[in-house]
Design a protein that fits this description.
204 residues; alpha/beta; Rossmann fold; three-stranded antiparallel β-sheet; 8 helices; 8 strands; 47% helix; globular; binds adenosine monophosphate
């Protein structure tokens, strides 16, 4: 099964995708994570990420296709961060068709704006192993990873300024995508204000 996670910044896509990935035993593919990795070597990508701007379609599409072609995606995947525009929704169908797959379920997560701001400004990531922490999953001691003892840091693009920009971009682009998946009959809307673990029951 191919799942697409939709929702604005900090509606909890990453956390819920991780939980689902473990429960369903299929990989969680985050285009944001792929791009943050690429940005370590690519100045242009680094700048666009820091500004909260979208990365050009040809760049991100190639990366996503390569990832979806890997053998661990044979039984499906949870795609988080893509599509962000209607064009990308169409491209995703083309990529998946080449791989003999399709979008089976698109989940739209919704959460109130004040919760989104709280979530985003408090979330941190381990610089060593990548584990995420936030209001629902705080670390046992401040700024130290429970798993590996690594230092926790706020993401470079998690500032109030870029967040505003990312929410604007999301709202501008989301309507046609939601419509696209509604027409295909694969859209499910879930309230993500509750605890992230609820996602398993909700998806079931
Ligand atoms: P995220 O971790 O999903 O919030 O993504 C972080 C940043 O990566 C976004 O603000 C964009 O700059 C970039 N990005 C992630 N996914 C895409 C995509 N599908 N198309 C273009 N840019 C993307």
């Amino acid at each position: 099964m191919i799942y697409v996670m939709l929702g604005g910044p900090a509606t909890g896509k990453g956390t819920r995708s991780d939980i689902l990935s473990e429960a369903l035993n299929i990989p969680h593919i985050s285009t944001g994570d792929i791009l943050r990795q690429v940005s370590r070597k690519d100045e242009e990508v680094k700048e666009l990420l820091a500004e909260g701007e979208l990365i050009p379609d040809e760049v991100i599409t190639k990366l996503l296709y390569a990832r979806l072609s890997m053998t661990d995606c044979e039984n499906g995947a949870i795609i988080d961060g893509y599509p962000r525009t209607l064009e990308q929704a169409v491209i995703l169908d083309e990529i998946l068709a080449k791989l003999g797959k399709k979008v089976d379920i698109a989940i739209e997560l919704i959460a109130p704006d004040d919760l989104v701001y709280k979530r985003i400004l408090e979330r941190k990531k381990c610089t060593k192993c990548g584990k995420m922490y936030g209001i629902d999953f705080p670390p046992k001691s401040e700024n130290v990873c429970d798993e590996c003892g690594g230092k926790l840091e706020v993401r470079a693009d998690d500032t109030e300024e870029t967040l505003k920009n990312r929410i604007e971009i999301y709202k501008e682009n989301e309507k046609p995508i939601i419509e696209y998946y509604t027409l295909k009959g694969v859209l499910r809307v879930l309230d993500s204000s509750g605890h992230p673990e609820n996602i398993i029951k909700e998806v079931e």
